[in-house]
Amino acid sequence: MVKPKLKIIPLGGVSEIGKNMMVMEYEDDIIIIDAGLMFPEEEMLGIDLVIPDISYLLDKREKIRGIVITHGHEDHVGALPYLLPALDVPVYSTKLTQGLISVKLKQRRARSGAKLNVIPPGAQLTLGKFKIECFPVCHSIPDSVGLIVHSPVGTIVHSGDFKLDYTPVDGKPTDLSRLAQLGAQGVLLLLSDSTYAELPGYTPSEKVVGETLDRVMAEAPGRVIVATFSSLVSRVQQVIDAAAKYQRRVFIVGRSMIDTVRIALELGYLRAPEGILGRLDELRGMPHDKIVFVTTGSQGEPTSALVRMANRDHRQLHILPGDTVVLSATPIPGNEAVVNRTVDNLFKQGAQVLYDRVAQVHVHGHGSQEELKLLLNLVKPKFFVPIHGEYRHLTLHAKLAESVGIPKENIFVLEDGDVLEVSPQSSRIAGKVSSGNVYVDGLSVGDVGTVVLRDRKMLSRDGIVMVIIAVNRQTGKLVGRPDIVSRGFVDTRESSGMLEESRNVVARALDHGRDRPADWGFVSTKVRDVLNRFYYERTKRRPMILPFMVRV
Ligand SMILES: [Zn+2]
Ligand SMILES: [Zn+2]
After folding, report:
1. Alpha-carbon span 546 to 464, nearest angstrom
2. Is the pLDDT of residue 353 over 90?
3. Which residue among 31, 109, 400, 552 has its CA within the 20 to 30 Å range from the CA of 236?
């Protein structure tokens, strides 16, 4: 008899950073770990976000026992508002994560009917043939967990996003003793975070940042403005703690920051001494060295309060000489240019600016090489799959696993959609299911495909030319010369001669079919062909050409 196998299928999050989603399937039971989004790369023009392709799951809905979420970051929860309407399955997470998910669902108006469940600490969750246990991990958002999945073929450990900070702000370090215990009992498979597998050594503790903030609050001559990620609740806590020590009051600025702080206070993940948090209308008359602002904008987001202030464009707040601005975040790759511009603008307004290259104002939330090795050594898995990272991160993490003694043939560097079949004796990649990017553009999901993206790329590079062709309703013959309107293609004044000439090119090309009613398919192809060739000869550009026919 063939024993049923456990299938591990990443639908996102391997060989890319973001849109984390891991499917585990055994006979008639499926569980999903995380449902994240990815922010678009630069060549995905006009796309707001990217979510995983879940077509593999759509006809297996009745098998899905639930989605378990490791923590509240966008790359782990961000796809839920788009996927829940399609899957309609229960979601399990810790308390703060659930709070953040419900805020998100409400923002997207997808809340009604979602079944959100809180996993109490220490509880075991039974989802079909899977029994799931959470263990606390230290990461850049409170209430993060890794998962221990007891499956019929063996125990699987999923690290979530983690680092091993022994002195974290919330006092809850990663639970190493539970992991060591599991390691002693035998773990079949470890799935572990690879985001910082490139960095040697250990990730510094949050404590380092606390010390910097303390110094800033003590020494800054005027107001202090701290910009960070709205999800970085522990950083907000550090700001509040340091401000309290020097009798400064804290003002939270910006919608998403206000939302997160409110929910974190409500659920007890943020502690603020009575009266320390203020409203902007209380600012008048307060001495500057008693004021701290906390805001988003650390990534140079154009609509954030910090960027508005840097550009003298904020309704209530302006940068004043003597202000100290702390950018408590590292620019996400791709954002460096806008962040640098923001720093420049802040300096120009007379502020003192502290950012990652000049001061210890940020530590990241993922383990470096020594931490990854420590986890491997504690858990001692038979099989290993590096997750959460680009191909190079996964490969480096695989090498680390080899270096601590996991045989090369037991390590699997996967791509999205790979099906890893796991049994107690052996594992192998046994196929591929459909996977990939679903683009979310404004309010619509999935109807922007690669064709649309190619068009946008073309438009952004070489512009557009519209050709308006008037034909006689009865005879189908051309009436007058075609009109040409262009945008983003050439300087219309300088190149008016060339554009004028192209009208004649079109007119000549259409003039052959003298007494034949014009077939639109033929005409539009012809117009595109001749103009493409003509414009390329003259300009070496390939604008998008859109012919229109008007019957008169
Ligand atoms: Zn994370
Ligand atoms: Zn992540």
Report:
1. 8
2. yes
3. 109
**Sheet strand arrangement including 145-151:** 124-127, 130-136, 145-151, 154-158, 187-193, 381-387
Q: What is the pLDDT of residues 302-316, one digit of tens each?
A: 778 899 999 888 888
Residues with CB under 5 A from ligand 2 (ion): 75, 161
- pLDDT tens digit sequence for 117-171: 999 878 899 999 999 999 999 998 889 999 999 999 999 999 999 999 888 887 7
- CA of 70 from ligand 2 middle (Å) equals 9
Using a cut of 0.85, tell me whether the model's pTM lies above it.
no
Residue 60: Cβ-neighbour burial (10 angstroms; 0-12, 13-18, 19+): middle
Q: Is residue 289 annotated as part of the catalytic site, yes or no?
A: no
Pairing of strands 418-422, 427-432: antiparallel
Secondary structure of 277-309 in HEC code, one letter for each residue: EECHHHCCCCCHHHEEEEECCCCCCCCCHHHHH
Whole-angstrom distance, CA of residue 173 vs CA of residue 164: 7
Distance 212 CA to ligand 2 centre (A): 26
Alpha-carbon span 93 to 128, nearest angstrom = 17
CA of 51 from ligand 2 middle (Å) equals 14
Alpha helices in 349-385 (DSSP H): 369-379
CB 464 within 8 Å of CB 487: yes
512 is catalytic: no
The residue from 143, 165, 170, 193 that is catalytic is 193
With beta carbons less than 8 A apart as the criterion, state whether 69 and 132 touch: no
Query: How many angstroms does the Cα of residue 243 sit away from the middle of ligand 2?
Result: 30
Report CA(320)–ligand 2 centroid distance (Å).
36
Pairing type for strands 352-354 and 324-327 reads parallel
Three-state SS string over 375-414 comes to HHHHHCEEEEEEECECHHHHHHHHHHHHHCCCCHHHECCC
Ligand nearest to the Cα of 36, by number: 2
Gap from CA of 363 to ligand 1 centroid (Å): 13
Task: State the CB neighbour count (10 A cutoff) for residue 25.
Answer: 24
